[in-house]
Amino acid sequence: MKLIFHLDMDAFFVSVEELFNPSLKGKPVVVGGQRGQRGVVSAASYAARRFGVHSAMPLRTAGRLCPQAIFVDGHPHRYREYSHKVYEVLQSFTPLVEMASIDEAYLDLTGAGRLHGPPLRAAHELHNRIHRATNLNCSIGAATSRLVAKVASDQAKPNGVLWILPGQEAKFLAPLEIRKIPGVGKVTEKNLHAIGVTRVGDLAGLEETFLERRFGKLGLALAGKARGLDAGGWFDGEIGDASDPKSISHEHTFSEDTAEAIVLEAMLARLSEMVGRRLRE
Description:
The chain is an alpha/beta fold. The chain is globular and about 55 Å long. Strand 5 (97-101) and strand 6 form a beta hairpin. A five-stranded mixed β-sheet has the order 5-6-1-7-8. It has 13 helices and eight strands.
């Protein structure tokens, strides 16, 4: 039987900033720019989230929601450095690692019981190793599938460990809001609400044939996810498989609107050069 871990660093960008400026700890912190600038929030501390601030929100909106927030421009090189430290710890734990983003990863620990012990013990050991190596907190979900492990790590936040026993996947998922299922965004959530589905258990109670007629291939994937299966393109491939990035990009937000061709062409050239450099690497 498979054993999959999903590790998610807690408020990663904010936590890294706190390492370099301990006075930020426990305070509402917004990373991504200054309150009056254009642009969006890259990350928010848990204290800021209590005021409704979240990532991808306009900085000015974050400033209105949380006037007392401390705004930090951010330091991407630091985040990459600490992400690499996390990856080194994960690689020392198992070679089957897949970095899903700069601050989260999947690990396949199937058959590693003799090396690391039972799942819960192994999860706590990994949790401790990450903290010793980085002085950062993380949350870990353990389950028989990537989907359930990811949902479990989210439920374990902040700084927790949660193991879903084999055979209990559907029971664990059933009471959760449908939006907790990876891949269910605002549009799909709205469409599911329209047919009376608000919880994962509601979805699990529907026939696959009905879901397929209503949503096509997505419906079949949703039926599988409601039971805790790695269904649909969200979880294609095996953990540890080498794969090239599907896309490489860079972006820039101007502080003021501009329609000047010279300014736009200069920025386009700069962004193109940055993308080209990463491709060559």
